[in-house]
Each structure stands twice: as structure tokens, then as C-alpha cells.
Design goal:
By secondary structure, the chain is mainly α. About 85% of the residues lie in helices and about 0% in strands. α2 runs antiparallel to α3 and α2 runs antiparallel to α5.
């Protein structure tokens, strides 16, 4: 074997090792998504059932702080899985869309409807729970 072949094989080995390390360390993201999904089961009904823009604003700010904290933490990781940024963006974007729609509908159309609040909480938790589930499957 020539030097270039040995160097290429070494580089591929190091890349495979980094990918393995990233998969092994990606459990933090799945745990965060499960916790964030569980939080939606509490925060969304609070935002929908409380009256006034102050309650909605406070719940939205709490959720934005959670997302911002994760984003900062994720950006500081030494090794992340391939496609992590795209997956994170899609998850947070889909959650934000569903959250905004549910809070808007809950405060304007459905008022203080407890059944709607329960459904809205599940709808907001669903993208995060699916993301956590796929992350756990990918780390295995």
C-alpha cells in the first residue's frame, strides 16, 4: 500500500470513530426532548386556560428560554451527529408552529376549553416526543 492509501484509511477510521462518539453522546439530546415534551403538557394548558396576554407571553418566554438554552448548549458540543442542525431546526420549527397555532386558537376561538387545552398540549408535545424517539433509535 502506498502512503496516500494508508492516510486515507486512517482518516476514514478517525471519521468513523468521531461518528461513533457522537452517537454515544447524543443521549443528552433525547433526554432534553423528552423533558421539553413533558413540559408542554403543563405549559400549554397554562397558556391556553389562563386569561390575558400576560399569561400567554410568560409561557411563550419560558418556552423560548428553554429552546435558546438548548441551542446554546448544542452549539457548544464538541461532536454532534451528522445532520443535527437540520434535525434540531425542523423539530423546533415544527414545535413553534404548533405552539403558536394552539395558543392562538385556544385564546381566540376556544376560550377556556379544557378538552382543547389537553389536545393542544398533546399536539405541542408530539413533535418533540417523535424527535426524542428517533434520536434514541439513531443512537442505538
Amino acid at each position: 500500500m502506498n502512503e496516500a492509501t494508508v492516510a486515507a484509511a486512517g482518516a476514514l477510521g478517525r471519521a468513523a470513530g468521531m461518528e461513533k462518539a457522537a452517537r454515544a453522546r447524543s443521549g443528552w439530546y433525547a433526554r432534553y426532548l423528552w423533558a421539553f415534551a413533558a413540559g408542554q403538557l403543563v405549559l400549554v394548558p397554562m397558556a391556553v386556560l389562563r386569561r390575558g396576554p400576560v399569561a400567554v407571553t410568560v409561557m411563550a418566554v419560558i418556552n423560548v428560554l428553554l429552546v435558546s438554552g438548548l441551542s446554546v448548549y448544542a452549539a457548544r458540543q464538541r461532536v454532534v451527529r451528522r445532520g443535527f442542525g437540520v434535525k434540531h431546526g425542523l423539530l423546533i420549527g415544527s414545535w413553534a408552529t404548533v405552539f403558536a397555532l394552539m395558543v392562538l386558537l385556544g385564546t381566540t376561538v376556544f376560550g377556556r376549553s379544557v378538552p382543547f387545552a389537553a389536545g393542544a398540549a398533546l399536539a405541542c408535545a408530539l413533535p418533540l416526543a417523535l424527535g426524542a424517539w428517533t434520536e434514541m433509535r439513531g443512537a442505538a
